[in-house]
Amino acid sequence: MAIKTRFTEEFGFDHPIVQGGMQWVGYAEMVAPVANAGALGFLTALTQPTPEDLAREIARTKEMTDKPFGVNLTILPAIKPPPYAEYRQAIIEGGIGIVETAGYKPQEHVDDFRKHGIKVIHKCTAVRHALSAERMGVDAISIDGFECAGHPGEDDIPGLILIPAAASKVKIPMIASGGFGDARGLVAALALGADGINMGTRFCVTQEAPIHENFKRQMVENDERATKLIFRTLHNTARVMKNEVSSEVVEIEAQGGAKFEDIQHLVAGVRGRKAMEEGDPDGGIWSAGQVQGLIDDIPTVKELIDRIVVEAEEIIGARLDRMVV
Amino acid sequence: MAIKTRFTEEFGFDHPIVQGGMQWVGYAEMVAPVANAGALGFLTALTQPTPEDLAREIARTKEMTDKPFGVNLTILPAIKPPPYAEYRQAIIEGGIGIVETAGYKPQEHVDDFRKHGIKVIHKCTAVRHALSAERMGVDAISIDGFECAGHPGEDDIPGLILIPAAASKVKIPMIASGGFGDARGLVAALALGADGINMGTRFCVTQEAPIHENFKRQMVENDERATKLIFRTLHNTARVMKNEVSSEVVEIEAQGGAKFEDIQHLVAGVRGRKAMEEGDPDGGIWSAGQVQGLIDDIPTVKELIDRIVVEAEEIIGARLDRMVV
């Protein structure tokens, strides 16, 4: 048995489950097992220091799986931007069939990818942005709710509202993102009008995720309340794991609107990288979604995906069907 | 056809749909059509000036419906509290079978209601509070997510996370509240582990809701972004309609932590009541949930409930069932 939707049919995957781009996580070690399990995984382009490194990472992933996978390209406004056109070229030359775009005005990239027959899924956090991406010509939308790890935008609209609001207007397939980690969420997303789910935090808490075991254990231990929204005052909100550092950032921001310079030392640089390598959950700022509260174990990627599909079939075929009398 | 759950079976209603207590809305005019349509409506005790008025409102509702309905009793800490015991007595003597409690330490009331054979549904906004209410001996939980109108609590956990997190731990029937307005939401709630949904804002936008037509039209017009969270700085957060007054309150709070005295004149008193009677959406503070973004019409209560049930059956029987192959 399987769950089939417009997304699985049009994109050619076994399961309507996506592992979207995640900075410092979207390596071959994460993406290959997702692909092998029949779902759609994305390498994260900008996690690779150079376009050449991305080309090598694509090749490395292909050695680990025969199944298709994608690459995420996130466009951020920057004074000195990364060489986006060269990353894009590495993706095209790498023979990638699906790209996840996110961020600021991706039109030029979308056009070029589509010219090369590459499907584009654009990730965004608001209905108006989804409609704008649809007009831009992308093949699917990944819509990210308030619950998500990383950047939920500034509107604070959770999936329960955002997904049906978008589904009423968007015509192309839509992946629901933010707050998803189990079969209950998958079926809810499908009921709300989505064609599949994206999971971030949940994929981080798998055997294969290339992050320190201590972070995985911390996310299992954390409940749904153990996140913080930082950078609200900078209008660049990020949902991160609640710990000493993120709590300090929130405190500084509450005292009257922080400038990035005031908190930069807390969130980046040597201290953060060292803590990440040493596996110190209290040593830096780490993205984590509210779905932590629904995570109780550290399965393999294949165990996780198979379990979600089997349990989703049970929820539809047993629980919901029996309610209709 | 119908949707049957533990809630409809144990509480004896046709549909797993609840119209919970709403201040200044939960009158006989709102509750009777909900009861007549086979769902569970609640009068709001404290909307009645005195316990005697509540007794009369119960009697008046009984003249408008032969079906069962409930009364909401919300317990708020106050220096000079309303005569809760007398309101409780009016409920018991009125022959009410179901009470919705909310707020602060309802144990004494729960005990007395249950002693009189009255079922109690306790409304709360956090898993730990749901578990505490279960231990207190209530018959069901109504769990209210971040999306909701009125008081979402201070944890900011949306239904997509809150419902399954609670469902994993709570053993008694559970109603999902906050962000619900259509069949997609009902099926999502059932998939996430709830046994029914509560709707507030959606019931306000019906023909029968005893509020000025201008408010109904404004909520149809508003999208999901047209709410504001006020009283954050007082740790008594309320989600209200975005307008000039609520935006001003948020602005005052952002300027360094408002005291209630600073904003009281904006949110209550003669100005608010006059605006309510005159139907001026910009004239005061009005509860409204994010589900505004999913509301496009002003049906009768019966049309609304019938439509949700029929469409929920279609989502389960057509959309979801066909996805399982």
Structural features, described:
2 copies of one chain form a homodimer. Chain A contains 14 helices and 10 strands. By secondary structure, chain A is of the alpha/beta class. Chain A has 2 domains: 6-210 and 291-323, Aldolase class I (TIM Barrel), CATH 3.20.20.70; 227-287, no CATH class. In chain A, the strands form 2 sheets. An 8-stranded parallel beta barrel of chain A has the order 1-2-3-4-5-6-7-8, surrounded by 6 helices. In chain A, strands 9-10 form a two-stranded antiparallel sheet. In chain A, a hairpin with a 7-residue loop joins strand 9 and strand 10 (238-241). The longest helix of chain A has 23 residues, at 301-323. The model of chain A has no long low-confidence stretch (mean pLDDT 94). Chains A and B meet through helix 7, helix 8 and helix 14 of A and helix 7, helix 8 and helix 14 of B.
Largest interface: A-B, 51 and 51 residues
What is the chain-wise order of helices and strands of chain A?
Answer: HEHEHEHEHEHEHEHEHHEEHHHH
User: CATH class of the largest domain in chain A, anyone?
Assistant: Alpha Beta
- In CATH, the topology of the largest domain in chain A is named TIM Barrel
Average predicted confidence as pLDDT of chain A: 94
Count helical runs of chain A: 14
- The total domain count of chain A is 2
Question: Roughly what fraction of the amino acids of chain A lie in strands?
Answer: 5-15%
How does the major sheet of chain A shape up? 8 strands, parallel, barrel
